[in-house]
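Provenance and format

Records in this collection were gathered into a single text stream. Each protein contributes a sequence line and a token line. The two records reproduced below are adjacent in the stream.
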Amino acid sequence: MMRARMPQARCQAAASARIPVRLALSWRARLKGLLGTRASSEALLLAPCKSIHTFGMRYPIHVAFIDRRGVVVKSLASVKPGRMASCREAACVLELASREVGEWLRVGERIYLQCACEGASRKEES
């Protein structure tokens, strides 16, 4: 039995940059978010989501608010613990430990989600 891999996210401006993503789709998963976790190279996609907080966080995070079309509408780098942020236009939010990437997403960039196992099945069919 083949085990499914984590979905991958990549932005249009840096097509070669792929970030492993964990999905937080339930109310409970969105509420917990990155609380109680160690900084890692894995991002968290909260959906649906229009606001976040970093109360109780141990490390700063990068935050990208993304609209329904997958376009970054607000981007915040190195949001320190104990802060709040929101964006009315957002449909979801992508969070990542700030020390994990040098340059963060910019407003206007498009985010694509792709399951890591999709590429493998296409190669096998060839």
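Adjacent record:
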Amino acid sequence: MKNVTKLMIALVVLVALGTACSKYPGFKKDKKEGFYYKFYTKNKNEIQPQIGDIVEFTYSFRTKDSVLVENVFWDDMIRESVYRGDIYAALQKMHLGDSATFILNADTFFHYSAGQPFPFGGNDLYLDVRLHSIVSQEEFERRYLEQLQQEEAMMEEFRFLEDDLINEYIEKHNIKVKPTANGLYVMRNVTGTGKQIKDGSRVAIHYTGKFLDGNVFDSSLEYGMPIELTVGVDRFIQGWEEALLLLRGGDKVTVLIPSNLAYGARGIKDPRDPRGVDYVIPPYSPLIFDMEVVSVE
């Protein structure tokens, strides 16, 4: 018994010495992959991602002293490792719900991901990651098809609602002007006395873009300066191009643009959404622009 006790004490001492002498205190080394790692939450009874699975995770990249990228939500398919100790190897070491930090070889990571050496000094890249979900490729494809069907149904609903929305807006705001042949409404609030805009004119325009419910999605006023463009050269939505040719310097107008002259069936996706399902401007959205012609050259 005494020998067993002595052996246990010796093992505890060796482990303590190993941790104290480690290059990265508190981290363990994966001998196969070469990276160091430390888990904060470890769910050993949960599943681990396999090749072909789709994973959703939040990650940050940092050096020992500085944060490079913070709390980015991402999804990706687990693939065969491109090189020893890459991010796919790190993710496969985790279980669903785990959070951990991996210390990767920075030069190797940047060589394969950016084609250049690590530009921030040192050779340690800290990857902080939390694994939110693991979905098989088959389940992911099923969900994707379901999402597409929902989007198609939503777009059909928007398409059928558009005319009603426009008519309700016209009635609510007592709009009396006639639309152009393409369905564009231009309501003059102030009539200017400057030059008439024509193809080739260099113009400066202040604008505020809104949905029919009044919610603003973009405005040059937020940037503190008008947008400058050359009519007929710089490409904008068709509704803008048609409206500008009806204006002159000093005009202040409100323009109602049906979706076929704006972003149509495609809308504009929200670039901040990694899933690609949210919109900044939904499909079949008629738009309102308050426009002021600041200058015409």
